[in-house]
Design goal:
Blueprint (H helix, E strand, L loop, with lengths): L16 H6 L16 H4 L17 H5 L12
The chain binds iron/sulfur cluster (2 copies).
Length: about 80
């Protein structure tokens, strides 16, 4: 089982600069203002924030890697 405190749900995705540029997290209404992004790959160990909408489904990487779900920034 993947430990969400150490990895995102999709920890196989390389959080490279190229990929990070596509990430929508920092312009998302639910962004937890952590200064981090690419939560699908990196996960989070911060307390859960508010779910005010998730832009992941509009992200290039979401489609490319066929991700499912959203709110990867939420520690749930
Ligand atoms: S994971 Fe989804 S909800 Fe969280 S900041 Fe990124 S786009 Fe927004
Ligand atoms: S799927 Fe979501 S968390 Fe992952 S890179 Fe795209 S916007 Fe960021």
């Amino acid at each position: 089982m993947v430990n969400s405190n150490n990895h995102g749900r999709y920890f196989g995705i390389c959080p490279s600069y190229h990929h990070a540029k596509a990430c929508k997290c920092t312009v998302c209404p639910s962004y937890p203002q952590t200064g981090e992004m690419m939560f699908c790959a990196r996960g989070t160990n911060k307390p859960s924030g508010k779910e005010l909408g998730c832009l992941c489904s509009e992200c290039e990487l979401y489609k490319k890697f066929r991700l499912e779900g959203g709110y990867f920034c939420q520690n749930t």
